[in-house]
Amino acid sequence: MLTLQSTPQSVAQAATNAFNKPANERAHFSQSAQALARVQDALAREIPGMNVNALQKLNAQDYTPDKIAERISQFVARGLNNARAQGKSDAEVQSLYDSAMSGAEKGFKDAKEILKNLDLLNGSIGEQVQATEDQTFAALRKLSPSNSSASFTAMNSTSVAAAQRYQKAEDFQLTLQTKDGDTVKISFNRALDAQASLGISTDGTNNQAAVLDVNRSESTGYQFKVEGNLSTEEIDAIQNLVRDVGQVANQFFNGDVQQAFAQAPNIAFDDAQLSSMRLRLSRSEQTSAVAQYQQTQQLNNPAGQTIGKLARELSDSAKQPALDFLDQARAAVNQIMQGLVQQDYRFQTASSDQQANYQNNLARLLGISPEAMK
């Protein structure tokens, strides 16, 4: 990938050091090859992303005007193609190209200035340096994104996007008060949110782009608070009650709402030590999915840009309002709880009196009036 980063070291100073201290493996090079090698090093220091050290391992015959021009232009071409494949915009690709051109211009300027000061920019060496500059810029100009001429051939573009989201939330709140007026509060909550989206786009010429995005987050919280001084007897009574409440909560959070209600009367409440208890359980679970298919006819894109544009189009389609509902707030907890009860087969097969009893118990659990359940 072609990156845009500036080296912290002064380019002129770095280039001077390279000219004054050539690498040992270049000591046997001809004066002309050494000069061209150092010109290439100066270019590599100025063109963002190039590796100077890797270039220093080349042989003497690799330092000719045409080979240096080809090496530089191929590096820049790879960077531009990678940017397009990653879905970069035309403006971003142009910016990368402009940075490479600016780096090449400064690299040649610094190299020729130092060669001139060393009296090496005369005769055949000067001619080869000039030929290297001419051929390099000729090759780079061919890569200019602005030179790409659009073809007006119509083609079909097909894109498919699908997304799915799963959410689950559990909340447990228990408040106890002892005969002596002490208060114990226990709360627990857990939330899970998993999302996945997939998109595929093709332009009808065997060019395809695919995007897969998966996100998963989970959070858990627990709090235990005591206001007052608990006696040994009160602690024992609370432990027994919490044990039974935990069994009811497990049934409830596992989706067996009716069994949770059936177990509720068996909770061990020691009225000799405890004066009141308030238990609130809530559970919500939601799965949402959406799919979108689109086929359009559009003009062909310039060569080398198709995949990048497909990726951008696919990304844009995933942001359309058709998918916005995934981020909207879910139904209230009491509506979900009511749905869970009514979907349970034991509720559906129960008598009218039993169904009314279930609904009344759920209403008290959710803190709403029984009339709201009807």
Automatic annotation (TrEMBL):
Q: Which InterPro entries match?
A: DUF5610
What Gene3D superfamilies does this protein's entry cite? Answer: 1.10.132.90
Pfam families per the UniProt record, alphabetical: DUF5610
Residues in DUF5610 domain copies = 34-143
Q: What is this protein called?
A: DUF5610 domain-containing protein
Q: In the record, what lineage is assigned to the organism producing the protein?
A: Bacteria, Pseudomonadati, Pseudomonadota, Gammaproteobacteria, Chromatiales
